[in-house]
């Protein structure tokens, strides 16, 4: 069996997000967020479930920590539920019970020698702020900055790694440009670009606040996490290769270019394509808002690491593209490419193809377009319909982590951390609870939400203990419950 060691100092983690695990949606003084609203919208969630009392981590967080401890990871990535802490959305009122909950969680992690890594925003915007326009309203840059500052003040003495915002594309394209993720605005061709600009500016504001007011005393790091699904041309034709590169600019570059490139602002290809389509469609100006020169400078260099989430790869072509195939105007129409489905194995979600070389290619795309930044893989994982002996998940992790090691050792990508998604089964957004990403299984029929270790728990535990990837390693299975 061959064994590949991880570089010295490489860190391992496991992740969750508040709405996906906490439950207790209306306990104490918590108010509604956009997911509480979406889950009450008929037809929005495929299996008609909600996050209302999903894994009950608000009650059972101590067990979650025992599970994290059992895995032996260096850090636990979780997010703050905005309205649990600030019921008004604004920071003028703090919930004492919310504050107590997050303090307990953080303190208990530290006592267990696990580093807390906080995501400030993982998609659960206060409904009160959504009613004022949410990420389409430029004032959110102030609101988010205030919220971030409040968190640094409350927890920054103990929390040293901050993620400002998780996956801007999912917020904007799927939340504002489609009828898909909350808030399901479906303002296609407009909303996703307004959100893109405001999310990037809000991130930059939160980073500057950390940098100017807290870094010296708290000594932490602060960065953004982007959805880095890889998109490649379906064939080697120059047109398809260009379609793949454009798709990366639209999906990832829209957010990474303003922050990580030396030029700043939105990528040229996106600016050009959206401006041209907008003009054809009779709009007086491009639907993609511009950054002012001051804003371009303000956003550049505002991430201490590149947070990288990756699950799968897709393929695009321009061959059969005709405008009208997608809503007009829209993100997809502006990109002007169609997806070609190739014959790869997949997980339970129909878009999650198992293509390990995709993660390596995507890490190299980041290296090339963003000046070889320090990359922290903040999510990677596999989805099934369930089962404890999850050999398919182990095989996915095995092959993807192998490809990450290729990216590090052969290509010189500066990857310093790896995070498995997810600690346990949870509320997979518009798919509800039927899709399982967990290392631990959660029994939703049990009022105590018993958690049982899948085979992959033992596999990941061994990887972390040995700090090495051992090909074809399979742990001996034993039943472990929390
Ligand atoms: C990325 C998101 O950050 C997370 O919330 C989600 O559950 C996973 N992808 C899996 O789809």
Automatic annotation (TrEMBL):
The keyword Ubl conjugation does not apply. One of its GO terms (biological process) is carbohydrate metabolic process. Gene3D superfamilies: Glycosidases (3.20.20.80). Keywords: Glycoprotein, Glycosidase, Hydrolase. GO terms for molecular function: beta-glucosidase activity. It comes from the Eukaryota. The keyword Hydrolase applies. InterPro entries: GH, GH_1_N_CS, Glyco_hydro_1. Homodimer. Belongs to the glycosyl hydrolase 1 family. This is Beta-glucosidase.
């Amino acid at each position: 069996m061959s064994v590949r060691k991880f570089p010295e100092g490489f860190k391992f983690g496991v992740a969750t997000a508040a709405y996906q695990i906490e439950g207790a949606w209306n306990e104490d003084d918590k108010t509604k967020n956009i997911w509480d609203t979406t889950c009450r919208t008929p037809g929005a969630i495929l299996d008609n479930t909600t996050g209302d009392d999903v894994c009950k981590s608000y009650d059972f967080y101590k067990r979650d920590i025992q599970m994290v401890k059992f895995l032996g990871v260096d850090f636990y990535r979780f997010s703050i539920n905005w309205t649990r802490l600030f019921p008004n959305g604004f920071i003028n009122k703090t919930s004492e019970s919310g504050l107590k909950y997050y303090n307990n969680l953080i303190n208990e992690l530290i006592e267990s020698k696990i580093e807390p890594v906080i995501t400030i925003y993982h998609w659960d915007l206060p409904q009160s702020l959504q009613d004022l326009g949410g990420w389409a309203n430029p004032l959110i840059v102030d609101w988010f900055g205030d919220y971030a500052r409040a968190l640094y003040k409350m927890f920054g003495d103990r929390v040293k790694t901050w993620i400002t915002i998780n996956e801007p594309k999912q917020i904007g394209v799927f939340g504002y440009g489609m009828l898909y993720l909350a808030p399901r605005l479906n303002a296609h061709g407009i909303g996703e670009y307004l959100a893109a600009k405001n999310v990037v500016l809000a991130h930059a504001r939160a980073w500057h606040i950390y940098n100017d007011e807290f870094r010296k005393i708290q000594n932490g790091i602060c960065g953004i996490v982007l959805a880095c699904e890889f998109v490649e041309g379906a064939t080697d034709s120059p047109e398809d290769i260009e379609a793949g590169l454009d798709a990366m600019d639209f999906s990832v570059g829209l957010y990474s270019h303003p922050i990580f490139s030396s030029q700043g602002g939105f990528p040229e290809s996106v600016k050009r394509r959206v401006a041209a389509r907008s003009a054809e469609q009779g709009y007086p100006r491009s639907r993609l808002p511009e950054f002012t020169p001051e804003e371009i400078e303000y956003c550049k260099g505002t991430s201490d690491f590149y947070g990288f989430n990756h699950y799968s790869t897709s393929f695009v072509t321009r061959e059969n593209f005709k405008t009208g195939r997608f809503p007009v105007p829209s993100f997809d129409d502006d990109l002007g490419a169609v997806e070609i489905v190739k014959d790869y194995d997949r997980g339970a979600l129909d878009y999650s193809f198992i293509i390990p070389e995709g993660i390596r290619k995507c890490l190299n795309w980041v290296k090339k377009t963003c000046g070889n930044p320090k990359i922290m893989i903040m999510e990677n994982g596999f989805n099934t319909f369930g089962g404890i002996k999850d050999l398919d998940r182990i095989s996915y992790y095995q092959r993807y982590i192998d490809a990450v090691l290729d990216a590090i050792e052969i290509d010189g990508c500066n990857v310093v951390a790896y995070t498995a998604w997810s600690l346990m089964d949870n509320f997979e957004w518009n798919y509800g609870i039927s899709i399982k990403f967990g290392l631990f299984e959660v029994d939703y029929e049990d009022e105590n939400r018993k958690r049982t270790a899948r085979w992959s728990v033992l596999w990941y535990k061994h990887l972390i203990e040995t700090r090495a990837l051992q090909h074809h390693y399979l742990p001996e299975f034993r039943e472990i419950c929390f």
